[in-house]
Design goal:
This protein is of the alpha+beta class. It is 33% helix and 22% strand. The chain contains eleven helices and 16 strands. Strands 1, 2, 3, 4, 5, 6, 14, 15 and 16 form a nine-stranded mixed sheet that branches. Strands 7, 9, 10, 12 and 13 form a five-stranded antiparallel sheet that branches. The chain has a two-stranded antiparallel ribbon with strand order 8-11. Helix 1 crosses helix 3 and helix 1 crosses helix 11. The two termini are 15 Å apart. It binds (2S)-amino(hydroxy)ethanoic acid and manganese (II) ion (2 copies).
Length: 419
């Protein structure tokens, strides 16, 4: 029976919500660290989590394969085999000491929807592909969106020069996981095979929580750049070099870090973050000679972001000149702001209403694989309310069972309404 507004959703949201939260908890046990939840690309914990996701996909009636980047791809054929697919999914790697729903919920929800279609032996006019992207955060090799780019047949060979914090090389990490670095990228994905890409993701902010709403339709995703900045001064004896004669790399970097925050505060919606700062050979009684830090600048408006980047790096140059240090930067990540497709937004809004939730539209400050898939398909996103003040990239990240179940019901409605 095709759903319409006279037939409210018959998706079993309650049981699905309970199972989604239980599965996210089970998946979080696969962590690189015994002390907190961290799961980086191709580690033993990451591979164990991929195996568990593949098993759940099989159970749900999806045919499963692993691609060259280690992403797990499940496909549920439509009424006519080989039909265009609605691609959905998210990532199953995490930041360090992160939350267990970031990415993962966007894999588990569509698997639950396909399981329900399979239980009803229902086939849609198109296929459904659920993709568990193996590396979105890029926490191990600073390779944001590595897996979604490989899924589309894109890969930057220069990444193979990188090593992780333990000194393990990119190629060695792939071979240890049974993958061949030469095969990492799929053949370029034919745009004609993707009907749309829809990603379910936790909001990672407080907007839905403050509005008292379980779901949100995403209007646009903020673009962003991430740069590694190297400040080089002169190391020296902390006790003997007079203050006026110092070229202290860390004191210069501290001024630069403050400059990022000052500039970002000037424009609503613009954000600037220094997430990592390392003092090379840092020692308590040595004036720091070399410092590296990261700068992450984002906005839903690319012109606003680009102006902020120009100002921030001009400030860095002024600080470096005044202090007699040098500054150099390398861009490790850049993605333009992405507008979500109006038709997909409309259908997501209809689906949210069909499951009895109020419709709320909002932009995404966080980056998502949908930004990469937008190069090959029209994209949309559905946000799920976060608890604990909306915190994310933090072990306190939390999602309510009922909201998770409602997200699955809304996606189920979307899949059955999509033409
Ligand atoms: O950084 C982000 O926005 C995402 O968590 N990768
Ligand atoms: Mn994240
Ligand atoms: Mn994420």
């Amino acid at each position: 029976m095709k759903p319409d507004d006279k037939h409210p959703s018959d998706f079993p949201a309650g049981p699905a919500g309970r199972e989604l939260i239980a599965r996210a908890a089970a998946l979080a046990k696969h962590s690189d660290s015994p002390d907190h939840y961290t799961r980086t690309w191709l580690t033993p914990a990451h591979r164990a989590a991929g195996k568990q996701v593949a098993a759940w996909m099989h159970e749900a009636g999806l045919s499963v394969r692993t691609d060259g980047a280690g992403s797990i791809i499940g496909r549920y054929e439509g009424a006519t085999p080989g039909a265009k697919a609605i691609v959905t999914g998210s990532h199953f790697d995490s930041v360090r000491n992160g939350g267990k729903y970031d990415g993962v919920l966007g894999i588990l929800v569509p698997v639950a929807c396909v399981a329900e279609l399979h239980r009803r032996d229902e086939r849609l006019p198109f296929a459904v592909e659920v993709v568990a992207f193996a590396d979105e955060e890029g926490a191990r090799f600073q390779t944001s969106f590595l897996a979604s780019r490989a899924f589309l047949g894109q890969f930057d060979e220069a990444l193979r020069e990188r090593s992780d914090a333990e000194g393990v090389g990119f190629d060695d990490a792939m071979r240890a996981a049974g993958l061949d670095p030469e095969d990492i990228a799929e053949d370029p994905r034919d745009r004609a095979t993707i009907a749309a890409y829809v990603e379910i993701h936790i909001e990672q902010g407080p907007v839905l929580l403050d509005a008292g709403l379980p779901l949100g339709v995403v209007t646009a995703i903020a673009g962003g750049t991430r740069q590694r900045v190297q400040v080089t001064g002169v190391a020296g004896h902390a006790g003997t070099v007079p203050m006026a004669m110092r070229h202290d790399a860390l004191a210069a970097a501290a001024e630069m870090v403050a400059a990022v925050e000052t500039r970002a505060k000037k424009v609503p919606g613009l954000v600037g973050t220094v997430g990592l700062l390392e003092v090379k050979d840092g020692t308590g009684n040595v004036i720091p000679g070399e410092v590296e830090f990261t700068v992450d600048i984002r906005s839903v408006d690319d012109a606003v972001r680009e102006a902020a980047e120009r100002d921030v790096f001009a400030a860095f140059d002024e600080i470096a000149k005044r202090r007699g240090v040098t500054v150099a930067a390398r861009k490790s990540h850049a993605v333009r702001a992405t507008a979500c497709d109006e038709r997909i937004q409309e259908l997501l809004a209809e689906s949210v209403a069909a499951v009895g939730a109020a419709v709320h539209r909002l932009p995404s400050g966080a980056g998502h694989d949908a930004m990469v898939l937008a190069e090959a398909a029209t994209v949309g996103m559905l946000f799920v309310r976060c608890g604990a003040g909306g915190v994310s990239h933090n072990p306190a990240e939390t999602v309510d069972e009922a909201d998770a179940g409602l997200a699955a019901a809304a996606l189920f409605e979307f899949l059955r309404r999509f033409q």
